[in-house]
């Protein structure tokens, strides 16, 4: 793959009324000149023309709209042309074949966005946000991706970078005058205070990953309880589909079943589990083990009951859900009043909701409690929420290095050692945006390989 090649590919799916073919590279305009009348090498930037696209023999393939962009004012920062043609797969294929015959190369997945990064149009975290924006399925994931694409992370990290550069510059300046012991450019107490402030900001960003990652992939909600209490019926009611088998036979669900739904613009991932009970059935035991695994991975647990749990059941579930939000779901209220000791439940500081999964009674109220239990902070497009495991890892490493610097400042160790820790903080933060370091080709390949062709 040569970065100097002029590339082309579909930027939209075929099969609709229209599709767009994107060309980018230094020869983009000159290649299109050979195929479209009215376009010349001197066609000004930001021009849109209606013309015919012709093959190598001069035969018309389609009438098209051609948009011309000049470097550096394009998505990739290169000369670019976008051809809008009719949505036929055959027409799009013929146009791309003609462009390749005139010197283009088929673009690799993510190559346009990779070029935008390499040409300074996007930071690395903004490039990743493009993929997240395309993949967004609800209001929350869309808002987070749009915030990242608009540079919210870059702005936050740029402010930290300026503070760190000032600190390292003062420490390194002292080294230049190390022969003069009485000269101190950096007040140690001031540097310590600044380092602690920077560390708090780094930790705040890192802590946002738990929420960001959950929202991005769906907040996991485990539906648990004994056999035949209505867990599968509840799953079907929540997702509004007959996803799980419902039967009066005990132990019908022997494995976890997952599906998702949106509540107030946030995706929740519901996991229906095998009923918890004492059994000698080997297969059912495996299902129950998977129930406990689902509880470990969940942020919210819906404990479905149709009678008062025993002290043993309470002890077992509460021990496994110490760090979870637990909602006790009292099901089957359509049949009769459930003999449940509400005061005892409240004494355990647990939420309790009455429903009839079969009739749909109380489901809206349950959804409200599920959403509230997720503890999702209210955020805007300007707020910084970390959603990438790569960013989270870099922040953790930066936190370790700034912690070493703080310890060094407290102990009064040599300024050059503190400066080295600060440089490593800068290095790890720079890995998020790709600015200020040489990003390994392997990292770039991993990031952009997950993009669709045309982006």
State the helicity in percent bands: 40-55%
Task: Please tell me what the overall shape is.
Answer: flat
The low-confidence parts are 245-252
Main sheet specs: 6 strands, mixed
Order of strands, widest sheet: 3-4-5-2-1-6
Summing up helix and strand content along with how strands pair, one would put the structural category as alpha/beta
Order of helices and strands: EEHEEEHEHHHHHEHEEHEHEHEHHHH
User: In DSSP terms, counting alpha (H) and pi (I) runs of 4 or more, how many helices?
Assistant: 15
Average predicted local confidence, pLDDT = 84
Distance between the termini: 16 Å
Sheet-strand content, in percent, reads 15-25%
CA-atom Rg in angstroms: 29 Å
Instruction: Give the strand tally.
Output: 12
In a few lines, what is going on in this structure?
The protein has 455 residues and is an alpha/beta fold. The chain has helices spanning 28-33, 89-101, 111-118, 124-135, 139-149, 152-176, 188-217, 231-239, 282-297, 311-320, 342-347, 363-373, 389-411, 415-433, 441-448; strands spanning 7-10, 18-24, 47-54, 60-69, 80-86, 105-106, 219-225, 257-263, 266-272, 300-305, 325-330, 351-354.
List keywords for this structure.
455 residues; alpha/beta; 15 helices; 12 strands
What does this structure look like?
- The protein is an alpha/beta fold.
- The protein has helices at 28-33, 89-101, 111-118, 124-135, 139-149, 152-176, 188-217, 231-239, 282-297, 311-320, 342-347, 363-373, 389-411, 415-433, 441-448, and strands spanning 7-10, 18-24, 47-54, 60-69, 80-86, 105-106, 219-225, 257-263, 266-272, 300-305, 325-330, 351-354.
- The strands form two sheets. The chain has a six-stranded mixed beta sheet. A six-stranded mixed beta sheet has the order 8-9-7-10-11-12, sandwiched between helices.
- Helix 6 runs antiparallel to helix 7, helix 7 packs antiparallel against helix 13 and helix 13 (389-411) packs antiparallel against helix 14 (415-433).
- The longest helix has 30 residues, at 188-217.
- 45% of the residues lie in helices and 16% in strands.
